[in-house]
Amino acid sequence: MQVSNSRRWAPRGPRRWLIAAAALAAAFIVRSLLHPLLGPVMPGTAFFLAAVLVESYCGLGPALCLMLAGLCLADYLFVPPYGRFDVIDASDVRLLVSYPLITIAIIALVERLRRAQYRAELLAAVAQSRYEMLLRHDNERLLNRRATDDMHRMLHHIAQYHHALVLIKALDPANSASPGSLVAAAATATSNGVIDDTPFNTGIAYGAMHAHVHREDLARVSDRLTPGHHRMRFLSADRNNWRSMECICERFITPSGEFLVLRAED
């Protein structure tokens, strides 16, 4: 993968130039303190180290400027004759040749390494982002598969218990499919399923058993239906008495919405 902005690893703004100026001042102070001990030996070493450190943290521009400023200070103050530019001897030539070559070579190497490091960090960030996207898509795929399986399970449940079905209620009628259409789809799998999808309330479709349920119990579960067991009164076979029966309500989460299916237990 090509990363075109790998050269932009260094920080921007005036702060890096202030750091370069501080590093130049520190190198000058250190070399001045060591001058009585070293004399004309290694006049540019302190400035070389400062340039490499500045390159490592602030980038190529400040490091080159520090190198040039250090070359001038080292040749003027720490190469004999001290404090003069009008006399050029072998010491000046050695400094003017060796110091820039070594410094530029090390700076170029550090710059290459820093660009490679920044490129690796960018690629790692892109890989992390793509990995998170793959995980998110995989989770969405698994959720969709689970919802589809739940839809198939609900339709099979309706077809299996169509004789005992009391009602189906959509928990969010505005964003869910019609419960009546789901009941009708399941009823096509059976040869003798009588379905009444005339809604008693919004988002509710009734099955074959709802006509035998007491109207008060039917109104109660239609308004406050929750998953679990419910005790309801059903009309007896002679249609003269009411008998209490246990009903079970199950919740299904499908791509078409969330539904509660209430059926009478055999």
Task: Provide a concise account of the structure shown.
This protein has helices spanning 15-38, 45-58, 60-77, 90-160, 179-187, 215-223; strands spanning 165-170, 204-206, 228-235, 242-254, 257-264. It is an alpha+beta fold. It is rod-shaped.
> What value does the average pLDDT take?
84
**H/E element string?**
HHHHEHEHEEE
Largest sheet: 5 strands, antiparallel
Q: Give the tally of β-strands.
A: 5
- What is the gyration radius calculated from CA atoms? 42 Å
Membrane topology: Multi-pass membrane protein
Keywords: ATP-binding, Kinase, Membrane, Nucleotide-binding, Phosphoprotein, Transferase, Transmembrane, Transmembrane helix, Two-component regulatory system
GO biological process, one term: phosphorelay signal transduction system
Domain Sensor protein KdpD transmembrane: 17-120
